[in-house]
């Protein structure tokens, strides 16, 4: 049974790509994350490929630890890069259709700033802004924001929920027809169509109104990555898009069905949420060529960088022969479950240290092969009802976005799985999502109906 | 004695202009502050006029109070507008030379965010970013950020000083030659050229490093508005540009000499700081025409909006005949000094209520006349040593920036007072300011010299 409709696609553009060795790839500009042209090229290419959106993950600090000593200086991964909320407005001027989504943390921001900035991005871009809501989990980030440790999970989620509530409230302060612009009569806005928020909660007190209004999308698109029980529930209640993990078609289908089933109790239709697992693609004219491209990337992984990836689970292995067996973990070292999982993988595969970290570095959901192979994989997931589309995580940039647009996009189009032109003017329209109703305008409409 | 060199010019682009009735002017797009094209036109026009920079003042809330009742809805002034830190990156793409300066509050932000965003803007724009450091004084803003009242003056300044210290420290974390980009050897950066900040102060704890680096200006330009004793001292120590008040040539010269004299004790040359008073210009072919343009703008001031401007000093006068005399203030009403100052003005001028608020609404340093008249005024200030240039505050937009560039810029150029082409590639170069030295690179240089 072939599924109706088209898949949605996002291009995750962080840094030089998602493989830790990307910066050493011969075609990758290793200083690209500090050059605007790098981002501009990738964004324009993604728009040429009719992607629904580009997306920036973000960290407000260097999350990676320098263990074993010296590994950080050899990693070149998520070290220095442009701040995405500053970058996206610039990219909006160079593009016309593609959505512009970035992460912003509810733990280390204030809702008034976030509401203003995303509202402004929505105005500048003509309705293409999206906010990926995260709570920030790392100590490295906490330490840049006056804390020794990051907030506990429950506190972070509680704060996040209130944060989002405040931001949505601020976005609604001005009804869509609030502005009279009546020069003759001297009336700028209708008093009864501006509403103070007067929020007084546990984490925030915000009076409002927001001093921006008139967003083309009503409000920006809300994106989440809800894997936990709590995260699934929040996604079902509020998200427009979910960036999901991808393990197997079966696991993703189960996740997909679960989250969509939760939506009914919030009065939402399943189509009002798009679930997009992350996929890494390496394409070439033949399977062997594609595999060779991937292998070359894997081989570029510096041993110290590889060892840093197993440090948390196994401790410092830099004193061991990396082409020898994985030693039994020192007892005092680590989080037990991670250690056990990694050791199981090493024992089951009879792996050397190098083989182990290479597997981990090259982990995630990869599709490697010809354009037809990759389209087959994507089609299988899509038609199985395991997703509404994909968030593409290019292993290295700009090569993987260029290749996707040149080879994979046409193949998806040929199969009727992907658009041949943008359907709408806004990200919301391209995603096929309804315009949200301003809460006050809705109340007014209900009142006047009741009065009839 | 004619002064050598050229004056510096900034164009302050907030909203629809600096006159509260600007939005009612027939040539002003009253919805302009929500349309990107409005800002884009003004920025491009200012660059055509070779301005050193555009500047956005900013408020994080609606500062004006709705008193007398209904006045806010009739004001159209600083109500809704784009968030400037989101707007400037977009404008940077449409311009090549002009500096991009915006306000950001040290009271309601975190230094890590501010350091990142301005560093990113500097990268995107090729070295044109500037930060106007303010502490935010209004209750309206406090109430959007979890507070009932704004911070006390001393606390705000103490926090601001530490905030700026942290931001500058973050900007220095990576030495300019920190990045090796050595693909062959696998070294991304030189470990000894990245420095944690490890700041632990009264208001902030920030570990660093910043995850952005390589700013073309070394660091963005720092702007302040230091009028108080404390403000003058901070400006003398740290500012690159001061936006100053303008009362009279004499008062401004005294201020100028005072601030510049304070710089020596910080090891700074007077030329390392540019002092730019604000000036409002209305130009036309004849003096009478220019005056008529100004008068027309004044007449567009809505009575309620005018009364709002005297509310803090005199209370609610909306029950009185506005063409009658200004009544004696009710005793319980207001801050005594402001009341006395306003009443003195009313009595001395024998003013009606309407005449009083019209004077106040049209206050500030105006130059009204032909291009020659206005150039005369600017030249007088500049040659008297009362300023290094001006921050132009256009009463309405886009008219006043268009007129400035068309009529006043050529007149200043003809007199040899203003550039005929941009001198440099960065804002720093155009302002004639030195490249700051990274603190760690400077230390390294000092060490290696000592070791010789």
Automatic annotation (TrEMBL), chains A, B:
<keyword id="KW-0288">FMN</keyword>
<dbReference type="InterPro" id="IPR011251">
    <property type="entry name" value="Luciferase-like_dom"/>
</dbReference>
<dbReference type="InterPro" id="IPR036661">
    <property type="entry name" value="Luciferase-like_sf"/>
</dbReference>
<keyword id="KW-0503">Monooxygenase</keyword>
<keyword id="KW-0285">Flavoprotein</keyword>
<protein>
    <submittedName>
        <fullName>LLM class flavin-dependent oxidoreductase</fullName>
    </submittedName>
</protein>
<comment type="similarity">
    <text>Belongs to the NtaA/SnaA/DszA monooxygenase family.</text>
</comment>
<dbReference type="InterPro" id="IPR051260">
    <property type="entry name" value="Diverse_substr_monoxygenases"/>
</dbReference>
<dbReference type="InterPro" id="IPR016215">
    <property type="entry name" value="NTA_MOA"/>
</dbReference>
<feature type="binding site">
    <location>
        <position position="103"/>
    </location>
    <ligand>
        <name>FMN</name>
    </ligand>
</feature>
<feature type="binding site">
    <location>
        <position position="58"/>
    </location>
    <ligand>
        <name>FMN</name>
    </ligand>
</feature>
<feature type="domain" description="Luciferase-like">
    <location>
        <begin position="32"/>
        <end position="386"/>
    </location>
</feature>
<feature type="binding site">
    <location>
        <position position="228"/>
    </location>
    <ligand>
        <name>FMN</name>
    </ligand>
</feature>
<keyword id="KW-0560">Oxidoreductase</keyword>
<feature type="binding site">
    <location>
        <position position="157"/>
    </location>
    <ligand>
        <name>FMN</name>
    </ligand>
</feature>
<dbReference type="GO" id="GO:0016705">
    <property type="term" value="F:oxidoreductase activity, acting on paired donors, with incorporation or reduction of molecular oxygen"/>
</dbReference>
<dbReference type="GO" id="GO:0004497">
    <property type="term" value="F:monooxygenase activity"/>
</dbReference>
<dbReference type="Pfam" id="PF00296">
    <property type="entry name" value="Bac_luciferase"/>
</dbReference>
